[in-house]
Amino acid sequence: MQRDVHTLSLQAPPATRPEAGAIALEQQWLNRLMGNFTWMDCRLARLARSGERILELGAGRGDLGFALAARGSPGSYAGVDHCPRPAGWPEDWAWWATDPLDFQHYDRFPVVTANLFLHRLSPEELAALGRTLRRSARVILATTPARRKRHLWQLAVLGAMGLSRTTRRFARAGVRAGFVGNELPQALGLSPRDWTWTISLDWRGAYRMEAVRRPRLAARA
Predict the structure, then answer these.
(1) What does DSSP say about strands 206-213 and 111-115: parallel, antiparallel, or unpaired?
(2) Domain residue spans in the chain?
(3) Could you tell me which of 103, 121, 115, 96 has the C-alpha nearest to residue 188?
(4) What is the pLDDT of residues 76-108, one digit of tens each?
(5) Residue 71: is its pLDDT beyond 60?
(6) What is the C-alpha to C-alpha distance for residues 28 and 23, in angstroms, rounded to an integer?
(7) 3-state DSSP call for residue 192?
(8) Under CATH, to which class is 6-214 assigned?
(9) How confident is the model at residue 217 (pLDDT cuts 50, 70, 90)?
(10) How far, in Å, CA of 207 to CA of 221, rounded?
(11) How high is the pLDDT of residue 116?
(12) Are the C-beta atoms of 119 and 109 separated by less than 8 Å?
């Protein structure tokens, strides 16, 4: 499949719909089914240094942050998204209600996470974000849908198990907007001279990128 981000933008379910709450719960369930929260928690425990500030891009309803807080980590965390601060977001965790592409304080955060967000960006937006991240980030951790047909079939099975049509439609568009291979680090402009990265594809539908700046080139962008 060719990557298609345009369809995803058309399928995004508005928060004002009467069924928005149920859809949000289904999306949270899909996140857990894909193992995204567990993977992110494990990678942060391994890669984030003591005292480093962590920023989540496209933090939305705060699902990832709440899951990490429930596991007792991390210590310093912040979210940025164009929506308001979620109810119950920890008081000592910062929140910026702005578009992540317009955020002005990336230099404060050496560790950047993005859970089911980067696949929503166009190639041009990914390139612009990559230029920003390459200036100051030390670690970038990202999960997106993997763009494989088998995951479209899996969603059909989940529909038979009760997953709503609206959530399935949005999830299918997400799969078509997702990544395979080295597409994401390449879209962000990460150079193998400056960065090492690992890409993994989970059978449950997750594409995961762990990118770490090479220590000997820490001063280079």
Answers:
(1) unpaired
(2) 6-214
(3) 121
(4) 899 999 999 999 999 999 999 999 999 999 999
(5) yes
(6) 9
(7) coil
(8) alpha beta
(9) very low
(10) 25
(11) 95
(12) no
